[in-house]
Write a structure and sequence with these properties.
The complex is a heterodimer. By secondary structure, chain A is an alpha+beta fold. Chain A has 2 domains: 33 residues; 111 residues, Nucleic acid-binding proteins (OB fold (Dihydrolipoamide Acetyltransferase, E2P), Beta Barrel). Chain A contains 4 helices and 7 strands, in the order H-E-H-E-E-E-E-E-E-H-H. Chain A has a 5-stranded mixed β-barrel with strand order 2-4-5-7-6. Chain A is elongated, with a radius of gyration of 22 Å. Chain B is an alpha+beta fold. In chain B, strands 3, 4, 5, 6, 7 and 8 form a 6-stranded antiparallel sheet that branches. The longest helix of chain B has 33 residues. The chains are: A alpha+beta, B alpha+beta. At the A-B interface, helix 1 and strand 1 of A face helix 12, strand 1, helix 13, strand 2 and strand 8 of B.
Chain lengths: 159, 653
């Protein structure tokens, strides 16, 4: 093969590969993208209904309940302004604790309960998922109070 | 006193690194031998002072000097000695110091083991490495000083993150860093070649062993990290497409492409500018990985605490290095290309395809990793990309890669005659397809299209990797007949085959099951009965734990007893799962304790993981292949002799 042809071949193959990759990427992105929704927005009803999304906040103190001998667990998560009840079946991560930050993947059921498929807790004392930290600082309430009592006043509901 | 010595040593190292950068580069430009000669001396001094700083920090950890902030935050009196040592690189400041030490070590390795490099060239390589050292030393001294004092000193430390108290994780960062930083050598070689405007096949021969060493350490580091995540994060996965995992995987993919592209440049003098671009990219991606980990910009289990100043510094440094290298590339690369040709069916073609596919794979990983950042910047929406996307997207370039790999190994340089090629490969191809059906159907009793594809692909690589070594064994007894570099290639590819079979089988036939269990009860998973005999309290040096005794039986016959633990570390009050694993080459049986569900019952995650060991075994064999390849004789001869022999060999070929 002449160098010119080689280059054409290389460029052609690269272009083809990139085109296929780009096409697949965009298509599959649609299905696998998961949005982070603030709890205040969940309460207002501004959340996806047909697909999973993520929520994050602090686990409300004293809200955790489980039936003895069952893997079902329920608790409340707050962004210090609003609170949403969460249900989960399975093993919770080691660092899951009341009063600590948590991220959950799942969707809201008809009763307004967030049914989680996956729960993630922070892995390090100093570390909180940036989106959770943002969401908390935005609502700027007394975190101590919120953790103990759940929501103080849940925003101006426009739903 | 000792920490101040460390601090001072670090400042001296910076001064020497500046000399190591400026004098050799200016000397090489002016042809001044004396100035060029300073490079090696300065590099040695730089290494010595970094080593002193590192030793001082280690000493502070071993003597529990809690007047050093970093030690107070990441160690504790009761921490076992091994973890006091590994705690040195257990968090940001210390791991940066390790990075600097590794870079300095690579620099003197290049300075002393490459004695037959031309003086000017060697000086430029040392200068470029010095420049990188200056960047990282400044980073450490300005934003992340490990020797900062804590006054008054703490009575006891805050303990090392319990996740990191594990022998596997103690050596994971050093291995990974040797790999990451090792690509700086290929980078420096590329920059030196572009400055001098002189890039020939000798250049590729000098660069190859260094690149392979870096690659093999990166392979080991990533595999060890994956193994650690499997047993220590507690949940039995081996790869999560976590941003930080991706950050180490992208340089690996590009580094793999670089190794293959260097082969073409060395043998045929082709792909020169492409090789340079890969050398630049591999190291740039290592830096990008550092940026992602250090800046806390990405949500990840591995991310260190957020600190915008550090992120900003690394980003600036990344920009300087990448833009500088690319400008030089744009200026110099066009003059480098050669006009040798090759046939459509030739090893060059296959290696070209290998490179295109590996780069596409790396690009996909990059897109998936950075997409959340880009979307947030453009729309303000916060998204995450799930592992399912990576799993599918990644298969697109890698499946053809695997099929082509088996063919490429048996294709001649320049041009290959189709008939003989087909005669050699048709039987392995048929056998692989048969095995692809037989393995899932008869061993595991289930079959699907993806399974046949995966198993055939794995069998195809394994068989085609074995053809050459087996042939040489049969003909001449012993592997003397096959050059080490070719043997290394076969072994590394064999490792790839083992890896693929492991991934295929464990993703298709692995079982995970969350259940409730209490003493006296049993559950069945994957044909095995897991019987909880009892629970007991045990104590470790710095933790207390609840330990379950679990008997595994198959058809009533005793297999093994495993003891998973739930540990509570006393200082940080955090809970950690220590999984109980019955490891075997054919399968792992895995039990992890979840949460206590009332009186005595626990939620447990039980897993049956067939062939999961092949994933790490495969990586180990790949690294072994790299080791065999660099032991090839042609990398050892001194310059002049080597040239003569190469010429003779080329004439004979």
């Amino acid at each position: 093969m002449k160098p010119r042809q080689q280059r054409m071949l290389a460029v052609g193959l690269a272009a083809l590969g990139i085109a296929i990759a780009a096409g697949l990427t965009l298509r599959a992105f649609q299905d696998n993208m998961m949005f982070f929704v603030e709890i205040s927005d969940v309460v207002k009803g501004n959340h996806p209904t047909e697909r999973n999304f993520r929520i994050g906040g602090l686990v409300v103190g004293g809200s955790m309940q489980r039936d003895a001998g069952s893997l079902d667990v329920s608790f409340e998560v707050t962004d210090t302004a609003c609170t949403v009840p969460v249900k989960y079946t399975g093993v919770l991560p080691d660092l899951f604790r009341e009063g600590q930050g948590v991220v959950a993947h799942g969707r809201l059921n008809d009763d307004g309960i967030f049914v989680a498929e996956k729960i993630m807790a922070k892995h390090d004392e100093d570390y909180m998922a940036p989106e959770v930290a943002d969401s908390l600082s935005k609502h700027q309430q007394d975190i101590q109070k919120a953790v103990v009592k759940g929501s103080a006043e849940c925003g101006t509901s426009d739903s | 006193m000792i920490p101040e010595i460390g601090q001072f040593a670090l400042i001296l190292a910076l001064a020497l690194a500046v000399c190591q950068t400026v004098l050799p580069l200016v000397g090489a430009h002016r042809g001044n031998t004396a100035m060029m000669g300073v490079g090696r001396t300065a590099a040695t001094g730089h290494f010595v002072f970094v080593a002193i700083a590192f030793a001082c920090l280690t000493y502070a950890f071993l003597t529990d000097d809690f007047s050093v902030l970093y030690v107070a935050n990441h160690s504790q009196l009761a921490l076992p000695t091994l973890y006091k040592v590994s705690a040195v690189w257990g968090a940001h400041e210390g791991s940066l110091l390790l990075w600097i030490l590794v870079l300095a070590a690579w620099t003197i390795a290049v300075a002393y083991f490459n004695a037959d490099l031309p003086d000017a060239y060697s000086a430029r390589v040392i200068g470029v490495l010095g420049f990188l050292s200056v960047g990282f030393l400044l980073f450490a001294l300005l934003t992340s000083n490990p020797f900062d004092r804590l006054i008054p000193a703490a009575a006891d430390g805050g303990d090392l993150n319990p996740l990191l108290q594990d022998p596997g994780l103690a050596i994971h960062p050093p291995l990974l860093y040797i790999g990451y930083v090792g690509f700086s050598v290929a980078f420096a070689f590329a920059i030196a070649a572009m400055i001098s405007g002189d890039l020939d096949q000798k250049w590729a021969r000098w660069t190859r062993p260094w690149t392979t060493v870096a690659w093999l350490f990166l392979t080991l580091g990533i595999a060890l990290g994956s193994w650690w995540a499997y047993y220590e994060l507690g949940w039995g996965g081996w790869w999560f497409w976590d941003a930080v995992e991706n950050a180490s995987f992208m340089p690996w993919l590009i580094g793999t492409a670089l190794i293959h592209s260097l082969a073409v440049t060395e043998k045929r003098g082709l792909f020169k500018s492409w090789t340079l671009l890969l050398a630049i990219s591999a190291f740039s991606l290592s830096l990008l990985g550092t940026f992602l980990v250090r800046s806390g910009i990405i949500v990840s289990v591995h991310a260190f605490a957020t600190d915008p100043t550090r992120g900003f510094f690394i980003l600036t440094f990344l920009a300087v290095v990448v833009i500088g290298a690319l400008v030089l590339y744009a200026w110099r690369a066009p003059s480098l290309d050669s006009d040798a040709g090759f046939g459509l069916l030739s090893r060059e073609t296959f290696l070209l395809l290998n490179n295109v596919l590996l780069v596409v794979a790396a690009a996909l990983v990059l897109i998936g990793t950075l997409a959340p950042l880009v979307v947030e910047m453009m729309t303000g929406g916060k998204i995450s990309i799930g592992p399912p996307w990576f799993n599918i997207a990644f298969l697109v370039p890698t499946l053809p890669l695997i099929v082509l790999l088996g063919m490429g190994m048996h294709t001649a340089w320049r041009t290959q005659k189709t008939a003989s090629w087909w005669r050699l490969l048709r039987i392995p191809a048929i056998v692989s397809l048969v095995l692809g059906v037989v393995i899932p159907l008869f061993i595991y009793g289930r079959i699907s299209v993806l399974l046949v594809v995966g198993c055939s692909a794995a069998a195809w690589i394994v068989i085609s990797s074995l053809i050459q070594p087996v042939r040489s064994l049969l003909r001449e007894k012993g592997t003397a007949g096959i050059p080490r570099s070719a043997l290394g290639m076969s072994v590394a590819h064999l490792g790839m085959g083992l890896f693929v079979i492991g991934v295929t089988v464990v993703s298709a036939f692995g079982i995970e099951s969350d259940q409730a269990l209490q003493p006296g009860e049993s559950i069945e998973v994957g044909g095995f009965e897991f019987h909880m005999v009892g629970l007991s309290n045990v104590r470790g040096p710095n933790f207390s734990a609840i330990e379950a005794e679990i008997e595994i039986r198959r058809d009533g016959e005793f297999v093994d007893t495993i003891r998973p633990q739930k540990r509570q570390y006393l200082v940080q009050k955090s809970w950690m799962t220590e999984a109980g694993i019955r490891a075997g080459l054919d399968k792992d049986l895995f039990v992890a304790l979840g949460d206590q569900l009332g009186q005595n019952a626990w939620s447990v995650r039980v897993q049956y993981k067939p062939l999961i060991r092949f994933i790490w075994l495969g990586a180990l064999v790949m690294a072994l292949g790299g080791l065999i390849a660099i032991s090839d004789r042609r990398y050892r001869r001194s310059g002049r002799e080597s040239e003569a022999r190469t010429r003779a060999a080329e004439a004979a070929a």
